[in-house]
Amino acid sequence: MTDPKAVIALTVNGEPVEVAFAPHKTLLEVLREDLGLTGTKHGCELGECGTCAVLVDGKPVLSCLVLGLTCAGRQVRTVEGMVRDGQLHPLQAAFADLGAAQCGYCTPGFLLTAEALLATDPAPTRERIKEALAGNLCRCTGYLKIYEAVELAAARMRGEDAEPAPETLYGN
Amino acid sequence: MATDGRSGGQAVERSSAGEATAGPPVRPPAVIGKALRKVDAVAKVTGRTRFADDLSLPRMLYCRLLRSPHPHAEIARVDVSRALVADGVRAVITGRDLPIPFGILPVSQDEHALCPDRVRFVGDPVAAVAATSEEAATAALDLVAVDYRVLPAIASPAEAVATPEPRIHDYGDDGNLHKLIDLEFGTVDEGFAQADAVREDLFFFGGNTHLPMEQHAALAEWSPDGKLTIWSSTQTPHYLHRALAKVLELPPARIRVVATPNGGGFGGKSDPFNHEIVVAKLAMMTGRPVKITLTREEVFYCHRGRHPTLMWVRTGVKRDGAITAMHFKSLLDGGGYGSYGVASTYYTGALQTVTYQVPRYRFQGARAFTNKPPCGPKRGHGTPQPRFALEVQIDKLAEQLGLDPAEMRLRHLQPPNGVTANWLRIGSMGLGPCIERVVAGSDWKSRFRQLPEGRGLGLACSSYISGAGLPIYWNNMPHSGVQLKCDRGGGVTVFCGSTEIGQGSDSVLAYIVAEVLGLDPFDVTVVTADTDLTPVDLGSYSSRVTLMTGNAALQAAERAREVITAAVARKLQLPTPRIVFAAGRVFDTQAPDAGMSFAEAVQLAEAAGGTVGTVGSYTPPRSPGRYRGAGVGPSPAYSYSACVAEVTVDPATGIVAVPKVWIAHDIGRSINAAAVMGQVEGSIYMGLGEALMEEMVHRDHERRLVHKWPSLLEYKSPTTLEMCDVVTYLVEDPDPNGPFGAKEVGQGPLLPVMPAVANAVYDAVGVRVDEVPITPEKVLRALKRKAKGEDPRVGPAGFPDIRWPEPTRVPTPWEGGDGKALGQTTKSETTTAKVRPERQH
Ligand code: FES
Ligand code: FES
């Protein structure tokens, strides 16, 4: 019953790795089960929720729909790769500051999808943010703190000295 | 703001009321009310939070469940012999291996980990396999042979009423009616006789589900020394602990339950579940760790979501809108098992009285068993359905009386510090200011009934409990306990059984302890939800955690402060009232330089009296209600919310869009303002989904009763594209029962959304959709009726005849009642717990 394992080489969070796994496995399973990177979550494993989003060559993909085998030679980025030199990525910091992560289960998928957005559009409008994140479901936040966190992080990444609006944190 | 992980002490600050913290000396709060990072925020944004499915252990086996394809059937035979010898399979079990029933309520011990002789809904588990891989376990399910004798299935409560036999369960109040309640407070007929107008309306609230993003998962490990450990995505580790002990016949001391952080709960992870017991049993049998992670489809079968509820409301009013009497009937579709259903049924009648004055009140509630996934507690537990009915009916009454619906509500508010007709004691009551804030913010007075056709505004209000007054099983112990340990290095660890489900319960503990001891909350370590390590907290349900664990933490921290204060006062030779704790120091309030670091203060206290550790606990105050059924509804404090929704309705498609919602919430006092905002916004979001799209639908073609949409794609929930703008107002009127005055926020703000949207749809296009969800198809149907000159309403047409029991008659406080029912003996005074007098199973 055990298929011979496939071995591929790829780059995960900037580091080259080799990994052996049953060839039918999805990238989600390879990351979580064979590379021990459980930061990437799943909510359906059917491409319906965005929880498993990671970046492959800089683009957001649903890792539950991607065969691990197809990632040979590619650059994969997961939430574990976002902290740099012990410091949170500005998106992570903004999510933490605003409470954009409640249960935190959808958060890795949102962070990476937002990171890909900001890479192409450093000053996205609210509408653009909504469109970019429309494939990610969150049941806790109502998305509003997530938009605000993306906007805050974008401003900080542009070098602005941005702070959250008081009504975001304290109400009107 | 700093971007490192330890910037918890920093936040955008706003001047706060400067309320006194508990105990002397008085200083403005340093932590309470601030918008700080949650203590687990960094773990969550870095992916380091370990959810249940993120755990694995060496030699771990994987479990899958074989589920029934029939909604109702007897199990004639189960043959596991082929599965047992399949590749990779290490164990296969059936109902015979786990014969002891369980259930969350003592009165509804009607579930089995695996069905022994009968299945009651499509998805009910029959057998379980543990194998070396998930694939092997899944493959082995096909090798389990089950012979079923199919039984007639009951699809709806109306059918359950009409079909008392055969029964889905061999217990319950009447045939297939699980629970029947009839309570009358005062004489409603007198009130109707005094009314200037009496309205009767029928409403239906469709069933919907929690849909947490995390699928339920559990991992169990058995040690040959006789000790079982289970890690599970549960909101109620204490109740799981009890269920495991019962079913597995193990001493509780040999079972350790660890609730992993839940990836969303909303009530859907509050029951002890069959899969949790199954992996525990398989771990005991195989001696190896066993994990199960439910598929998304299986999460829909676990369900325990909102009960579909049919409601009939008769309300009498004076010309000025004063309610003279209300008679409320509800019929709940319970699905295949009891779950929390008895409590849910009571809750559909409990909180009608806490917002506006209702001098006479009758409630008749029934819960039916049907052959569908069991319903239970979802955010708002049993109260969103009646709240929808009540708030829409008030909108209709206001129009009938020619009153502004906001004004009508404001005139007849339940006063603070009062007792309601059904004997609920109200403390602080901030609904008035809430209504005023949303009315002003939405420009209600110049826009309601004045917007162009197709656009509308609707208003609705609500209230919710800050924890239930009684525990789920009868006992007189505290509902929440905290242990606190102060370290020589100045760190403090708080141990509490509470479960973090994303609502911020871990943070609340840290903030409260930090406030009292003058520390940065990030110097406080929080250990929670582990039955080996932490004192019992009953669980993350009924919006109880901030108030109850908060009070327990407050007590433990104050006791620690006393111990340390005594040592420091001796050392500084000062009277104890002069000692203050702030900014990580303990010092003389009159000479701040005279003092020491918190760590040094702990060392002094430790040298003087040994290890510095304290405990705190919380028991809710006793409620004045003494009648049978009085156990559901009492709470230490009630939150209040008011909401205005703006909608647009497309007459061509019937599509309702909600561009904006104004919500004001009476929080008592924010412990963390940003976290409160997050709960409010998340509630609006979930309410919007319930208002417009979320619905559990079962195909009943040939009585199959298969869930139509057990998928995240087809069960429609709001995405970023549907979510509305939200303007939030926090009304702070500290409640004496809350820690620092705090009340709940996790559930209450959801409640007014559905009726506000329904009322706004009427304002927009003049049709009444007296049903949730308000789908385009229903709106179109109502618009067609309107165009034809018919009653422009879509909604239920009747309420089935039910054989109600004799009503329990309870005199109201203003009739000189004593909280007891007429004819009730003093003896039953001690048996008012919602479950105790009914504990027959
Ligand atoms: S787990 Fe991949 S989209 Fe849901
Ligand atoms: S934070 Fe819980 S699902 Fe998004």
Can you tell me about this structure?
The complex is a heterodimer of chains A (172) and B (841). In chain A, 33% of the residues lie in helices and 15% in strands. Chain A has 172 residues and is an alpha+beta fold. Chain A has two domains: 6-81, Ubiquitin-like (UB roll), CATH 3.10.20.30; 90-166, DNA polymerase, domain 1 (Orthogonal Bundle), CATH 1.10.150. In chain A, strands 2-1-5-3-4 form a five-stranded mixed beta sheet, with helices on both faces. The longest helix of chain A has 14 residues, at 107-120. Chain A is elongated and about 60 Å long. Chain B is an alpha/beta fold. Chain B folds into three domains: 25-51 and 477-618, Aldehyde oxidase/xanthine dehydrogenase, molybdopterin binding domain (Aldehyde Oxidoreductase, domain 4, 2-Layer Sandwich); 55-151 and 213-264 and 269-302, Aldehyde oxidase/xanthine dehydrogenase, a/b hammerhead (Aldehyde Oxidoreductase, domain 3); 309-470 and 627-794, Aldehyde oxidase/xanthine dehydrogenase, molybdopterin binding domain (Aldehyde Oxidoreductase, domain 4, 2-Layer Sandwich), CATH 3.30.365. Chain B has a seven-stranded mixed beta sheet with strand order 3-5-1-12-9-10-11. Chain B has a seven-stranded mixed beta sheet with strand order 30-8-13-14-15-7-32, with helices on both faces. In chain B, strands 16-24-25-28 form a four-stranded mixed beta sheet, with helices on both faces. In chain B, helix 17 (673-692) crosses helix 18 (753-765). The longest helix of chain B is centred in the middle third of the chain and has 28 residues, at 545-572. At the A-B interface, helix 2, helix 3, helix 4, helix 5 and helix 6 of A face helix 1, helix 17 and strand 28 of B. The structure holds FE2/S2 (inorganic) cluster (2 copies). Residues 42-45, 47-52, 62, 64 of chain A line the site of one FE2/S2 (inorganic) cluster. One FE2/S2 (inorganic) cluster sits between chains A (101-107, 138-141) and B (213, 264, 502).
